[in-house]
Amino acid sequence: MKALIYDAPETLDFRSAPDPEPGPGEHLVRIHAAGICGSDMHAWMGHDARRPAPLILGHEAAGVIAGGPRDGERVTINPLVACGTCAACAAGRDNLCGARQIISMPPRQGAFAEWVAMPDANLIAVPGDVTLTRAALTEPLACGWHAVRLARQVVPDAARALVIGGGAIGVGSALALAAQGVGDVTVVEPNAGRRATLEAMGLRALAAPDDSLFDVVIDAVGLAASRATASACARPGGVIAHIGLGEDRGGLDVRRMTLQEIAFLGTYTYTAQDFRDTAQAIFDGRLGPLDWIDLRPLSEGAEAFRAIRMGDVPHPKVVLIPDGVT
């Protein structure tokens, strides 16, 4: 098969790679769409020791099953493979499984390729009226869905929310807030092109926060500066849901958070139920038209990574399409 392979920092090569071999209970999936995630960018820049080169990146994907009893079924892929038997899995928190694996991290290759092998339970059927490019957004949107669900457990009556970051995770969080009943949502995004895209979607987008305080603040960036913004903008008794993994130190105003009883939640990926719920919300149209995608050929993936790095992509999400897929 052909694949986009990460060979060294800021180096991707489109070349032949071994076809994946499905294990017991797994299906071979022909990839039709695979999104570029922030974690793919971190790996490409050499900032993620969990993703050593050479490696096929990509974990936001959808495609068509080839062979077996589900042959020809259109599916979106939950890339997180849990053991199913540990205490975390038994509690429905499979995202915290100590034995979890995710495609795009060894030993599992990723989805910037023509084929991937996945367990049956990780493949969610996609209705015929939903495009596979939209279905590939399930994974990044599920991250926001999970964070919003956890934040609303802390502040059930949340009415106002701030999302820091207008990339796919931030956009997904904003859409999930609206879908889960939070009516007043503001997104902070410094990139003017992205702000224009957000505003065209009907979202309120600012270059920087004003003096308002919010029931829920979602940090979809994860830098010291964004954490400083989050801890300044949460109202007393509010909650910060932290998704971003930009850098691991600094930013939080712990004194203010302590004096104002502001909760801080680290939120990692999603549970299998969150993934299913997000997929259903996409299928039902509750997350909008999802027309903010920049489609590019997988063979030109290296150029797409560079464009994202340079801030030249106004769309929240770039999705790569393998050659020959229609």
TrEMBL record:
KW Iron-sulfur (keyword) present: no
Keywords: Oxidoreductase
Span of domain Alcohol dehydrogenase-like N-terminal: 23-127
The Alcohol dehydrogenase-like C-terminal domain, residue ranges: 169-281
InterPro entries attached to this UniProt entry: ADH-like_C (IPR013149), ADH-like_N (IPR013154), GroES-like_sf (IPR011032), NAD(P)-bd_dom_sf (IPR036291), Zn_alcohol_dh (IPR050129)
Annotated EC: 1.1.1.-
Enzyme class name: oxidoreductase
GO terms for MF: oxidoreductase activity
Highest taxon listed in the record's lineage: Bacteria
Keyword Oxidoreductase applies: yes
Name of the molecule in the record: Putative L-galactonate oxidoreductase
